[in-house]
Design a protein that fits this description.
The structure is a homodimer. By secondary structure, chain A is α/β, with parallel strands linked by helices. The first copy, chain A, has one domain (about 5-270): TIM Barrel (Alpha-Beta Barrel), CATH 3.20.20.150. Helix content of chain A is about 45%, strand content about 15%. The first copy, chain A, contains 11 helices and 10 strands. Chain A has helices at about 15-25, 35-40, 45-50, 70-90, 110-130, 155-160, 175-180, 185-190, 225-235, 250, 255-270; strands at about 5, 30-35, 55-65, 95-100, 135, 170-175, 195-200, 200-205, 215, 240-245. In chain A, the strands form 2 sheets. The first copy, chain A, has an 8-stranded parallel beta barrel with strand order 1-2-3-4-5-6-7-10, surrounded by 7 helices. In chain A, β5, α6 and β6 (about 170-175) form a beta-alpha-beta unit. In chain A, α1 (about 15-25) crosses α11 (about 255-270) and α8 (about 185-190) runs parallel beside α9. The interface between A and B is medium-sized, with 30 and 30 residues. Chains A, B: InterPro entries: IolE/XylAMocC-like (IPR050312), Xyl_isomerase-like_sf (IPR036237), Xyl_isomerase-like_TIM-brl (IPR013022). Chains A, B: One of its GO terms (molecular function) is isomerase activity. Chains A, B: Keywords: Isomerase. Chains A, B: Pfam families: AP_endonuc_2 (PF01261). Chains A, B: It comes from Amycolatopsis cynarae.
C-alpha cells in the first residue's frame, strides 16, 4: 500500500488540499499532481502542502504538445515545457509526464510531427536532467494518435528515449494505453531503468462518447493487471504505482469512497 | 480506375444487384462482397450476377471470430468458417477477410485468446488452400481489441501468417486500422506477397459515439494514403484497391454520389 499513489485527476472534484488529506486518511504514500490545480494553490504552497503531509510526489502531469510547425507556437511550447520542468523540480516530482501532441490542425504528416517531437526533446532533455527531473514519454492508445499523441507504443517510446541519457528521458507504462499490445510485456523488459512511471487503469467497452473518459477503475474493464505489474517489477522499477482514471462516474462518487475502492482493487488485482 | 473496388458495405443501403449495377455504371473493375447480402441473393445467383457484369470479386467479408473457449462454440465457429471459405470459392473471391474475434465475455486472458486463434487457423488454412481461397488476417485498430479482434498490428498479423504457406494465409492492409503505426510502412515491405487485400478508408476525429462508424471517405480524416499505396505496390501487390467505409453519413447518401466521390478521392489522394 506504501507504493500506491493517487493521481489527482482520479478525484477531479477534490482540491489539492482535499486530495492530500484524502491520501493521508487512506494511508497512501504518494500523490500524482497536475499543473493546473498546483497553479491554483500556488507552486510553493502546493509543495509545502504535500511535504507537510509526508507524501511523495509520484509524477507531475503534464508536459508535451510538441508537434507545432509554426515557429512562434513551437517556441511557446518549449517555454511552457521548461516551466513545467521547473515546477516538477520545485515539487520534488521525479518525472514530468509527456503527452507529446497530435497532428497539427489540417496536417497529415505523421513522420514530420514525430520528427518535431524528437527535435524538441533534444532541447528539453538536458534542461530537465540538470534539474533532477526525468521526462517521462507516455505512449498513448493509438486511438489518440491524431489529436493527442503521435507516440503510440512502448517500443516507439523506447526507441526515442534511448537517444538520451536514462536520467533525462524515461517512459510511462500505463495499462490503459498498452494493454492490447502483443509486444508490451517484452518491451517492459527492454525498458529496464527507463520506466519512470507505472500507471494502472482499466479499459472499458463500449467506449463512452468522449473516448477520453474510457479510463475505468481496475476490475471494471478488460485489463489483466498482474502480468504488467510483474513485468514492471522484474524490470527493476522501484517507484510508485499510480491510479489515474478519467471517468464521469468515478468523478461523481465521493472521494473517500473512490480511494477505498481503489485500495481494494489494487490489492485484489494489481499487486 | 480498373483496380478500384467497391466494398459493398460502403453502399450498405444498396442490394447486391444494385451495387453490381452501380459498379458497372461507375466503370469499376471489382467489388468486395459480404456474406449476408450474398446469402440474401443466394450464393449461385450472386456469383452469376457479378460474373455476368464482368466484375471481379476482390474479397469476401468475413470469417473469423475464433476466440471462443467453449468446445461447442468453437466447433460452430470452425464450421461457419468452412462455409465461408466454400462461399468465397464459389464466388471466385481470392481471399476471405478474417476478423479474428475479441475476448470472450468476462475473459481477460488475451494470450489465451490469441493462442486459440492460431490453433483454429491451423485447422482452417489447409481447407482454404485446397479451395484456392486465401485467409486474409486483418489487424484491426487496437481500440477494437476487447470486442472485435485480438489481432492489432501488421507485425503481429505477419508473425501469425508466416506460420503457414503464403497461398493459404495472407494479411489485409487497411489504412484505417494501421495509419497510426510507426512500423506499418516497414511491415508492408516485409509482407511482400502476403498482402491479400488492400483497403483504403480514412480515420475520423472525433470518433462517433459508435466507434465502428469512424471509417470515413478518403480526404475527410487524418490519413496520408500515398505512402501506404506506394509501399503496398512496392511490395508487389497486384490486386484490387478496395474502399470500405462504415459511416452513417455516407450510408444516407445516394449510392451513385458515393461512388462519384470515391472515384475522385481515389485519383486525388490514393494512387
Amino acid at each position: 500500500m506504501e507504493r500506491l499513489s493517487l493521481n489527482q485527476m482520479t478525484t477531479k472534484h477534490w482540491s489539492l488540499a482535499e486530495a492530500v488529506d484524502g491520501c493521508v486518511r487512506a494511508g497512501l504514500g504518494s500523490i500524482g499532481l497536475w499543473r493546473e490545480p498546483v497553479a491554483e494553490t500556488g507552486l510553493a504552497a502546493a509543495a509545502k502542502l504535500v511535504a507537510d503531509a509526508g507524501l511523495r510526489v509520484s509524477s507531475l502531469c503534464r508536459g508535451g504538445f510538441l508537434t507545432a510547425e509554426e515557429p512562434g507556437a513551437r517556441a511557446e511550447a518549449l517555454a511552457d515545457n521548461r516551466r513545467a520542468i521547473d515546477e516538477a523540480a520545485a515539487l520534488g516530482a521525479p518525472c514530468l509526464v509527456m503527452v507529446v501532441g497530435g497532428l497539427p490542425a489540417g496536417s497529415k504528416d505523421l513522420p514530420g510531427a514525430r520528427a518535431r517531437v524528437l527535435d524538441a526533446l533534444g532541447e528539453l532533455a538536458p534542461y530537465a536532467g540538470e534539474r533532477g527531473v526525468r521526462l517521462a514519454l507516455e505512449p498513448l492508445h493509438p486511438m489518440y494518435c491524431a489529436d493527442r499523441a503521435v507516440l503510440s507504443t512502448l517500443r516507439q517510446a523506447l526507441d526515442w528515449a534511448e537517444r538520451f541519457p536514462a536520467g533525462q528521458v524515461g517512459v510511462v507504462v500505463d495499462t490503459f494505453h498498452l494493454w492490447w499490445d502483443p509486444e508490451a510485456i517484452g518491451q517492459i523488459a527492454r525498458a529496464g531503468d527507463r520506466i519512470a512511471s507505472y500507471q494502472v487503469c482499466d479499459f472499458l467497452t463500449p467506449l463512452p462518447a468522449d473516448v477520453l473518459l474510457g479510463r475505468g477503475m481496475m476490475g471494471e474493464g478488460h485489463v489483466d493487471f498482474r502480468p504488467f505489474t510483474e513485468a514492471v517489477l522484474a524490470a527493476g522499477y522501484t517507484g510508485d504505482i499510480e491510479v489515474e482514471l478519467f471517468n464521469a462516474e468515478v468523478w461523481a462518487t465521493p472521494g473517500d469512497e473512490v480511494l477505498a475502492t481503489m485500495k481494494q482493487r489494487y490489492l485484489e488485482l494489481v499487486v
